[in-house]
Structures are given as C-alpha cells and as structure tokens.
Specification:
The protein is α/β, with parallel strands linked by helices and about 250 residues long. The chain is built from 7 helices and 11 strands. The chain has one domain: Class I glutamine amidotransferase (GATase) domain (Rossmann fold).
Amino acid sequence: MKIGILETGEISDDLVGKHGDYPSMYMSLLHAIDPSVNFFGVKVLEGKLPESPDEADGWIITGSKYGVYEDLPWIKPLKNFIRTSVKHKIPVAGICFGHQILAAALGGTVEKSHKGWGLGVHDYDIEARPSWMKGSGKRFSGHAVHQDQVIKLPESATVIATSGFCPFAALVYGDPENPDALSVQSHPEFSAGFLDDLIEIRVPEVFSEGDARKARATLGLPVDNNDWALWIHSFLELAARARNNDP
C-alpha cells in the first residue's frame, strides 16, 4: 500500500531530533505490522494538498495544535479533500485533530471542551467491534493530548469507542464492516517518552503544573498502540482491496 500522511501539525524542533516527525512516527507504527507499506508526507499546514485522493491508497490525517473551527487558509480545502476522498471510497484515517476534522467535514460539530485538557493515558470502552478489529477486548488505553472534542456526530458516523471524558473517542463512517473512514481521539503513534518530553516543554504556557503532574503520573501505564496499528492497517487494507476488487 501507498499511504499519504496529511501533516496538519509539526513536531517542534526541540523534540523532532529525538522522537522524529509525524511521518516517521506513523511509519514506525505501521511498519511494525507491515514493513512493505510505503509512505509520503504532504504538508497541509503549508497550504499543500494532493491534486487527487487517487494519489494514495489511503490517507492519514495527523494531530495539530490548531482547532478545526479556526479561520485558517488550509482548513476548508482539507475538508473538501476529505469529502472527495470519502465520496470516491479512498480510505481516510484521522488521529486527534484528524479525528475532529473528519467529523467537522462530514457534518459533525467540534468544540473546545469545558472539561479542559485530556492529557496522559486515558482508558476507553469499545462500543462496537467490526470484524476487522481483530484481537480487541472490551477496552483500550491510549495517549491523550486534546482540549477539543467532537460533540455532535455526522449522520454517517458510528461510535466504536467512548469514555467518560470523551464520549465520541473513536468513530467509523459508512458501513462499520467496510468503512469509508476511521478516526480516534488518542494518539497511537505517540510513545510515553515523547509525551513526557512534550509535556515538559509546554509547561506552563500550555499545560498547567497540576495537569502536567497528573498526566505524567499515568505515563508508566500500558497503552494499546499495537492494537491501533493493526486496526488502522486492517482498515486501510480492507478499503484498498474493496476498491481494487481483490478478494
């Protein structure tokens, strides 16, 4: 498969040398499942977009420090690209900001939550389990870094995971057994070490000392990044096979 990484955010220079950029994080995540997957990055943040969704077998939308409701010149074109991809059955996977902009592009609503920051390791209950989510139990854990949340679902969305903090934590669009898009609010591409370093450089300008302390106390807990690597890969592969009429 050839997967395009739609870069809507950047890893800061303080961290990229140690932890890599977004494309390298997703390469590491999915190459653990399938080393044959090819990747390329598109810097949406700089106003770039592919001419057509057909340039890849599927797309991954990264996290971002921005909100989907902000009046930025690249937000509307990205939403249009998402809608075109879904219309033409090119699979899209969204992570954090990607989760939110998928919902916003397809008719949902995203707002800054009154609950404040979701930060650190969070637990989520699996509400629905399509057959391609093999090996999943009743819950998963993941690294959370977000204030914004999806608060109203698009009509085509099905909730596959939820939590008390984030009711719409993971979604699929269309037929859950053969979805057009998949998204999750947490970050399966993040390591505990990266999140620890990210918190450190963002205190106190972004995260309060109290929020940082509580979040860092959770970073020794296990997360299910490998499960999400498998699910994202299975989703992308399933969609690519369906489009190519492969068995």
